């Protein structure tokens, strides 16, 4: 038997409960894992609350992240006793995920836990931090350098924004962090933000072209926020887009692209190939100050994960929520 948060479809919506399940209920896969930690991401919140059509197969165990120890494996790269890490790959959407004490997965989706991280640290970072690292990698590869100007990070103090701020500051960039409450500025300063912009200045309709402010942008919000950030990006600057906390719409024009040569870089963390995944984790291992992980992550247990899913959708979560599934 194992413990799991199970989402089940009903005639009027869905139910979400912490249940005891038999091992025979585990889905197909070539690697079985005793899970130690998972996380609560925005996508997990959508699944738990039913606020978005995330779950596409029923019933479903949510949790797009996990770290744990291999107990059984017919996949050549992993053997019992290995500590492995998972981010994305449709887990928690079409395949049972990490908010459980056991998981059975496809070995192609897994990587070994980088030696520089403990399981707790890896999940405090999670998909949000890994996505932030992919975004920073994209700006660096595009040729954005610290001397070219300021980098705007939206969605702070959420998980992606928090880790992106820390990574960019470590790499020498001047980070301008958006915020919703002045009390968040102390936290963001500790992560490395130099300046601040209230999120309300970006969240409404704006002009197609605005004052050029940013050499680059890391956006996890979408909608008007992304459009305004693009409209404020310097000539031949770069904007990464990896989220939709405000919305999936794009209420903008082509003007910044054809008059200023701004480039919009899409960041996909779910199906990202293993090479860029490993590079993103290598950046995290190299550049993320371990002392900041305690600021970014807070911990709960499986029972508390359900409420945390509601809280992240309500905008009540700062940084990352680490789920100790055995706690």
Key words describing this protein structure:
alpha/beta, 6-stranded parallel sheet, 7-stranded mixed sheet, 2 domains, 27% strand, Rossmann fold, 30% helix, Quinone Oxidoreductase, Chain A, domain 1, 9 helices, 327 residues, single chain
Q: What does the model show?
A:
With 327 residues, the chain is of the alpha/beta class. The protein folds into two domains: 2-113 and 291-324, Medium-chain alcohol dehydrogenases, catalytic domain (Quinone Oxidoreductase, Chain A, domain 1, Alpha-Beta Complex); 127-266, NAD(P)-binding Rossmann-like Domain (Rossmann fold). The protein is 30% helix and 27% strand. It has helices spanning 42-49, 119-142, 159-170, 184-191, 223-231, 255-259, 274-287, 290-296, 302-313, and strands spanning 2-9, 14-21, 31-40, 65-73, 83-87, 102-105, 111-112, 150-153, 175-179, 195-198, 214-219, 233-241, 263-266, 297-301, 320-324. The strands form three sheets. Strands 3, 4, 5, 6, 7, 14 and 15 form a seven-stranded mixed sheet that branches. Strands 10-9-8-11-12-13 form a six-stranded parallel sheet, sandwiched between helices. Strands 1-2 form a two-stranded antiparallel ribbon. α1 (42-49) packs across α9 and α2 (119-142) crosses α7. The relative contact order is 0.16. The model has no long low-confidence stretch (mean pLDDT 95).
The profile of the biggest β sheet is: 7 strands, mixed
**Between the first and last Cα atoms, what is the distance in angstroms?**
16 Å
Taking pLDDT < 50 over at least 5 consecutive residues as the criterion, the unreliable ranges are none
Number of strands: 15
Shape: globular
Name of the CATH first level of the largest domain: Alpha Beta
How much helix, percentage-wise, in residues?
25-40%
Provide the CATH architecture of the largest domain.
Alpha-Beta Complex
